[in-house]
């Protein structure tokens, strides 16, 4: 395989190429670095590229291979979102408000390095991860490789743009209200928000009161599983610990799911939220495909306590935005829109905040009642096709927050209750932009989601499609 083809080959294929001697880790990483230098000025996916360090790590990987070492991710270039701690760098979180270098790698980065991965760079996010797009006044917008006039989503937009453009084999994202699923959905990638507590967020005990989890963004289901197998697990001090998976994620991704009962819901989490026709069609087409694959697919629209649950989420979101800004070293350096969101959170009555945070167990039990009758829930990922760069710039903060909430209505509740949820590519819009659907699983059950997602991938492949205009044809 030519090196240029390896850019889009993903984790499993790149790891095999290094392992088999088809390519050296140094050549693989050097090729990615050259591609980043050429392509990223168009996309703005990276906050920092670790060129010298990555080449040194790649050379070390080649030496390890020559000594007979066989690590799962040896020599594979992986990018990391800028809210994940890397030793020697401040954890910037999309801002210029952090200056003090971290004393040590996060658990995620340490585990990636232990598995042989090469950390190739740090990817961009919106300030404090507040938006479903990746833009800021000082850094400019990050752009979607499929269409530079569109956003790659957020808040893990840089991570998704990097993988979709062939700048990294995989990237790590975080998800507090859809921030892995949104960018995966709009860039044609596979993204799975793991169960709360599946991947340690150390050195943090928890992030955003338990709403935030971390996980890979990848080209294929197996790629996700290979990376997640290396980074999952608790660390001392974690407030949340998931139940052990019933198999390795890699085994789940290569195992037929059997016959499942799959519920389909097109009911938004809140009244009066429209769903675009192309989004609805993608869900219905996926439901038909799952039926053809032998599953028992039924329409089910569970009541989700719309007003109570959505109000709880909004209060927690705003309160956490306030805490996140206050926790930065230089909180006055964040942008006016970020300050405005944080100020809304600061002004919330304390009693309202306590109320919003106290009902997790009841809401979790209520939302999970659906899994008494189905194994997996199929919904839209987003309510409309990808938004354009700068589309909501003219709106005031409250209007922009409302638009974002409507856009991501199917995603947020699963952060509140903690269940795993995946987005799976599901065709294209009439203008060629990616569409996706969401699959939600029982608590602690990423394995079923991986098996079903891989089955969909075999039936309706997506990873062989790559963006044009970035040095590689469709």
TrEMBL record:
User: Which part of the chain is the Amidase domain?
Assistant: 28-450
Which InterPro entries did the record assign? Amidase, Amidase_CS, Amidase_dom, AS_sf
**SUPFAM superfamilies found in the cross-reference section:** Amidase signature (AS) enzymes
**Domain of life of the organism encoding this protein:** Bacteria
Q: Which family does it belong to?
A: Belongs to the amidase family.
Q: PANTHER family from the entry?
A: GLUTAMYL-TRNA(GLN) AMIDOTRANSFERASE SUBUNIT A, MITOCHONDRIAL, TRANSAMIDASE
Checking NCBIfam families in the record gives: PRK12470.1 (NF009119)
Output this protein's name: Amidase AmiB2
User: What organism does the record attribute this protein to?
Assistant: Lentzea flava
Its taxonomic path starts at: Bacteria, Bacillati, Actinomycetota, Actinomycetes, Pseudonocardiales
């Amino acid at each position: 395989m030519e090196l240029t083809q390896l850019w889009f080959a993903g984790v499993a294929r790149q790891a095999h190429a290094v392992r088999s001697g088809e390519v050296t880790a140094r050549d693989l990483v050097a090729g990615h670095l050259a591609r980043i230098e050429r392509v990223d000025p168009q996309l703005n996916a990276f906050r920092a590229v670790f060129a010298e360090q990555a080449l040194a790590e790649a050379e070390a990987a080649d030496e390890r291979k020559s000594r007979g070492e066989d690590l799962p991710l040896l020599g594979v270039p992986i990018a990391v979102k800028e809210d994940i701690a890397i030793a020697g760098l401040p954890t910037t979180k999309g801002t210029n408000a952090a200056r003090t270098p971290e004393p040590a790698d996060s658990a995620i980065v340490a585990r990636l390095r232990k598995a042989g991965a090469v950390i190739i760079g740090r990817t961009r996010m919106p300030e404090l991860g507040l938006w479903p797009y990746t833009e800021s006044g000082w850094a400019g917008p990050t752009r979607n490789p499929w269409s530079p006039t569109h956003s790659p989503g957020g808040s893990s937009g840089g991570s998704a743009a990097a993988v979709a453009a062939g700048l990294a084999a995989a990237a790590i994202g975080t998800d507090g209200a859809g921030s892995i699923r949104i960018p995966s959905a709009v860039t044609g990638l596979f993204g799975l928000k793991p169960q709360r507590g599946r991947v340690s967020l150390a050195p943090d005990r928890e992030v955003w009161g338990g709403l935030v989890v971390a996980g890979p963004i990848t080209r294929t289901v197996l790629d996700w599983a290979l990376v997640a197998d290396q980074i999952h697990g608790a660390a001392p001090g974690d407030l949340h610990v998931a139940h052990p998976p019933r198999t390795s994620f890699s085994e789940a991704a290569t195992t037929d799911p059997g016959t499942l009962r799959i519920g389909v819901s097109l009911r938004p989490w809140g009244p009066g939220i429209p769903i675009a026709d192309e989004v609805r069609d993608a869900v219905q087409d996926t439901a038909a495909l799952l039926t053809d694959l032998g599953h028992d697919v039924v329409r089910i629209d569970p009541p989700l306590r719309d007003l109570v649950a959505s109000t709880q989420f909004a209060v927690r979101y705003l309160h956490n935005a306030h805490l996140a800004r206050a926790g930065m070293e230089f909180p006055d350096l964040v942008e006016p829109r970020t300050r405005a969101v944080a100020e809304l959170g600061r002004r919330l009555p304390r009693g309202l905040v306590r109320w919003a945070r106290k009902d997790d167990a009841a809401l979790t039990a209520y939302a999970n009642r659906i899994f008494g009758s189905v194994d997996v829930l199929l919904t839209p990922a987003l309510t409309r096709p990808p938004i354009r760069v700068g589309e909501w710039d003219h709106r005031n903060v409250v209007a922009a927050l409302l638009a974002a909430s409507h856009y991501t209505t199917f995603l947020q509740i699963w952060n509140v209750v903690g269940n795993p949820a995946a987005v799976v590519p599901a065709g294209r819009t009439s203008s060629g932009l990616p569409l996706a659907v969401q699959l939600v699983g029982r608590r602690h059950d990423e394995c079923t989601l991986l098996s079903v997602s891989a089955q969909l991938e075999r039936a309706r492949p997506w990873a062989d499609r790559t963006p044009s205009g970035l040095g590689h044809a469709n």
